[in-house]
Amino acid sequence: MNVCIIYGGKSGEHQVSKVSALSVFKNLDKTKHNAVLIGITKKGEWYLQPQDEKLISQNGDYLTIREIPENRVNIIPGGRENAFRIQEKALSTDVIFPVLHGTYGEDGTIQGLFEMAQIPYIGGGVLSSSIAMDKEKTKIIWENAGLPVVPYIAVKDYQWENPEEQQKIIARAEYSLRYPVFVKPACAGSSVGAGRAENRQELLLKASEAFQWDSKILLETSINAREIECSVTGNKVFTAYTPGEIAPTHDFYDYEAKYLDPKGAALKIPADIDDSMMYRIRETAVKAYEALDMTGLSRVDFFIDKNDGRLYLNEINTLPGFTSISMFPKMCEASGLPYALLLEELIKLAIDRFENKKQLKLENLE
After folding, report:
1. Left if phi > 0, otherwise alpha if psi is -120 to 50, otherwise beta: which for 270?
2. Stated pTM of the model
3. Mind giving me the DSSP string for 184-243?
């Protein structure tokens, strides 16, 4: 099959995507599949890339994006396997592997494009991807499903810009959440724009920084927590894999700790938890996944309160990191599913979902 790996993108996680994409490319079984590489620049332009690993990797760490004008990619709605084109030439595509993180990658926008092109793709659909990107909407759905979430307050920019409304929000946060308070953009990935406020002055500063990334932010209770993650795959039958634990060396697991500081965190797989908690996390991860109508894959993130042992859902990542040391593939591997076979499973799930959807009656077309 022709597997189209799309990477880069316009989000703040552009560079991380290029690292993940190299791992996917290296581990894809070339005896079964032909890799078609499309790089998206930070400006949002799409370019076909060479398939020779020596030409496409930079120091062996990540895939580059060569902006060759004659390799600019166009998309034909309804084009199916021939939807991607360079000038008049079709790039035959059987399935898309979007190795994209954050905005314009896992927020439902590009998934809608794939739907219009009518090509199978790996990961959640338009609605589930869009909802999961919005931390407030995700929490609302999880709360409605009876799942435990961290106490929070959602704030829109127009509310914060109103001095009287802002004072009410601050008073509410100080009363119901109490300091320290976590501040984060509602729709941004990898902890970009997130910070912790120890007092009112810091809350004002962190809120201002978070609003640079999104028009809506969340204020959350700061929990003295252990951070646990669990990989989940499936469309109709779901598998939750061995949970892992992140032990940050920073104040919290921010963007720098994840990607810039090689000693930013210790990763433990399996997590150092008892069998009862292990079972509960895996069970809750599947419930969280199902509640959002997820398909393909996701990484579900948890907090365990160090003070009272309570379990909370933190967030869900619909296109998690795929580097060779990323938690998602490592947790799958710990459960007996190595990286290369994981890719095969995700390709199968993408095609199965596409074929099942084709059987549905959409309209009485003549």
Report:
1. beta
2. 0.91
3. EETT-STTTT-EEESSHHHHHHHHHHHTTT-SEEEEEE---EEEEEEEEE-SSS-EE---
Looking from the CA of 3 toward its CB, the CA atoms found within 13 Å total 26
Annotated binding site for ATP: 135, 182-184, 190-191, 220-227, 314-315
Q: Considering only CA atoms, which of 142, 98, 100 is closest in space to residue 121?
A: 98
Contact 42, 3 (CB under 8 A): no
Residues forming the annotated binding site for Mg(2+)? 301, 315, 317
User: What residues are paired with 230 via a beta bridge?
Assistant: 300
Helix (H, G, I), strand (E, B) or coil at 169: helix
321, 229 Cβ separation under 8 angstroms: no
| Distance (Å, whole) CA 15 – CA 344 | 25
Cross-strand bridge partners of residue 162: none
Catalytic (active-site) positions: 13, 190, 326
Helices (H), 28-75: 53-56
Residue 97's DSSP bridge partners are: 5
Give the pairing type, strands 2-8 and 34-40.
Answer: parallel
Specify the range with the lowest mean pLDDT, choosing from 92-96, 172-176, 263-267, 315-319. 263-267
Q: Binning pLDDT at 50, 70 and 90, where does residue 134 land?
A: very high
The CA distance from 33 to 348, in Å, is: 13
Chain-centroid distance of CA 275 in Å reads 27
Binding positions are 135, 182-184, 190-191, 220-227, 301, 314-315, 317
